[in-house]
Amino acid sequence: MLWATAGVAVLGLLVTLEVVARRRLGAPEPMGQQILEAVFAPKPGPLYGGLALMMVVLTWRQRFLAAGLAVGIDAVLLAVRWAVGVEVDDGSFFGSGALWVMLGYAIVAVTRRTGPERVLLLKGVGLGLLLVAGRKTGDTWLLITAKTRPLVLDPYLAAADHALGDPSWLVGRLVRATDPISTHLLGWVYAQLAVAAVVVALYQLRNVAAERRFPRHHLVRTFLVIGLLGPGIYMLFPVVGPVFAYGPGASGTGGVEWAVADLWPDALPSISAPHPVPYDGITPRNCMPSLHTAWSVAIFIHTRKSPRPMRFAGTFWLVATLAATLGFGYHYGTDLIAGVVFALTIEAALRSLDRGWDRAGIQFVAYGTVVFAALLVSYRCLPVEMGERPWVFGPLLLLVTASVIHGYLRLTRLWDPEAAPARRPEPQPELV
């Protein structure tokens, strides 16, 4: 019932986005474009990552067969494109084969499987296709934020960010001073977040084929829910980021002509009465909360019970992602704090849903929700007060965030108590 409800909800969202993209935005429909990419050169994306997730339900022989078919189909399509002279962008050579194989296994599940085996295979296919669809729908959502929110609230966050010491300006200078090593490393980490998530998810789902069932909770669920709810907050609190609102822009969007002032990261903006400012109709309003932060926190959480190399990788990815979001000017420090609270609240809610809602779970989810809402309200209503009294509001922001982290740790320790060591039997006196 849960999977069916989720499927209907996702289908409704996809249909809505198709209609909005075509009739309101004049943009390519996300799913229509994805269908076309079954033949035409696909844009870079997680197509093979989706295939890898689908293959967790297959045997090793079936996995080799599926991977071979995907690569073979891509090789044939690449040869056909080359023969007819179709120009292909860099990074768009492969991916269609993975989509064909996932759709093929969906047909196999419906026509050749029955009972629990059909359900398991459909879950695997759905998991892979959700990852693929998430990328397309995410791009459409970002365009919707740019088209429907002409005014952005960056001056509010810039003022509130003084309470935290303007970390984006500080880290931005450090990244610039250590260029090109820092920019290449952090840029790669920032861009490959989805790859890191797939690696962690594959480790968590490694026993699905043998056990013939999915674990109750895993990283992909948290990732998808964060990606589903986050864009809704973008619409309520549209923000473009320091490099756009106070700098030259990035990734081909923005520009000094749209900036409040060309300051980032060399000079701090002054504290004055903030007001919404207009920005272009292309740059996504995707700062509040920082979903890169939320996703990297989810990766960190889901690697805590993994082997040491994966725990180290999860910690590295979290630290490097935080450094990248600030150092490239994509986010303010206030965004990162909101992202941490957002991720922990969603993670606790999903775990509570799986294990059954209890008093501790309800209280923490309610507390995280209230803290997140209070952060948004304070950024909107008290930015000047926060910026003018950093010795009060800076520690207060950090303390509130620490309280959410502490509450989550207490909750998980309550749910997953460490196994007590087995008592050794006391020596018994020998019988004479």
TrEMBL record:
Show where the Inositolphosphotransferase Aur1/Ipt1 domain sits. 157-346
Q: How does the record classify its membrane topology? A: Multi-pass membrane protein
**Which CDD domains does the UniProt entry name for this protein?**
PAP2_Aur1_like
The UniProt entry's coiled-coil ranges are none
Q: What keywords does the record list, in alphabetical order? A: Membrane, Transmembrane, Transmembrane helix
Q: Which Pfam families does UniProt cross-reference here?
A: DUF5933, PAP2_3
Q: Where is the DUF5933 domain?
A: 1-144
Give the InterPro entries listed for this entry: Aur1/Ipt1, DUF5933, IPC_Synthase-Related
Quick one: where is this thing mainly located?
Answer: membrane
Q: Which residues cross the membrane?
A: 67-85, 91-110, 185-203, 223-246, 312-330, 360-379, 391-409
Query: Where is this gene product found?
Result: Membrane
Q: PANTHER family from the entry?
A: PA-PHOSPHATASE RELATED-FAMILY PROTEIN DDB_G0268928, PTHR31310
In its UniProt entry, what is this protein called? Phosphatase PAP2 family protein
* Provenance organism: Streptomyces tricolor
